Amino acid sequence: MRCIADTAFRPGPVSLRSTPFPISLRGFRQRDVPTISRIVADSLHEHYDPALYVSLSQQWPEGFLVAGDASDLPIGFLLGVTQVEGEARILMFAVDRPWRTRSVGSRLMETFFQRGRDRGMRRVTLEVRVSNATAIRFYTRYGFSVTDLLRGYYSDGENGYQMAKDL
Q1: CATH number of domain containing 150
Q2: Which residue of 8, 9, 48, 90 could cross-link 137, Cys pair, CB 3.0 to 4.6 Å?
Q3: pLDDT recorded at residue 139
C-alpha cells in the first residue's frame, strides 16, 4: 500500500480494555436516526438527510454498527459499505463526546474489521479531515496509513485524507 505522508505517532498495540459500564453493539435501527444525526453534527460537523442513514443501512446491514448505552440509546456508530470488490469503506464513524476514551470506538472498529474479514474483505478505507489529529492518531494505531490528499473534500471546503488498511 502506498503512503503519501507520515502519519501520527505509532504507539504499541491497541489496548481493548474492558469497559466498566454496559455497552451493547448491535445493528442500526431506523429509530436511531435522530440520535445518530446529532452525533454526526457534533462530531463530524456534517448534516445529512435522515433518509440517507436508512438507505445506506440496506447496502450492508452488518456494516452499520451502533454502540448503545444501558438504555440502548446510541452513543456511537460506525457506518461501513462495500463499493469495491474485496474492500470495505468506512463512511461515518463517531462516538458521542461524553463516551470518548472509554473503548467504545475500539469495540466498534474491531467488530467492523471482523465483519469485513468474515465477508472476505482484504482492505478498509476511510476519509478524515486533515485537522482531526485525534481521529488520525486513532486510525494510525489501527494500522491505517494516509494514501491520498483530498482537496476540498468536505462540505465546508476543508481538505481530507484518504486512509487505508489491509485486513
Answers
A1: 3.40.630.30
A2: 8
A3: 97
Can you give the residue range of the structural domain that contains 118? Answer: 24-166
Query: Who contacts 28 (Cβ-Cβ below 8 Å, separation ≥6)?
Result: 36, 53, 57, 61, 64, 65, 66, 77, 79
Give a yes or no: residue 140 inside a domain.
Answer: yes
- In tens, the pLDDT along 61-99 reads 999 999 999 999 999 999 999 999 999 999 999 999 999
Instruction: Judge contact between 9 and 137, C-beta under 8 A.
Output: yes
2 occurs within a structural domain: no
| Average confidence (pLDDT) over 125-147 | 97
How many CB atoms are located within 10 Å of the residue 69 CB?
17
Residue 77: inside a domain:
yes
Domains: count for the chain:
1
Residues 148, 145: Cα–Cα separation, whole Å: 9
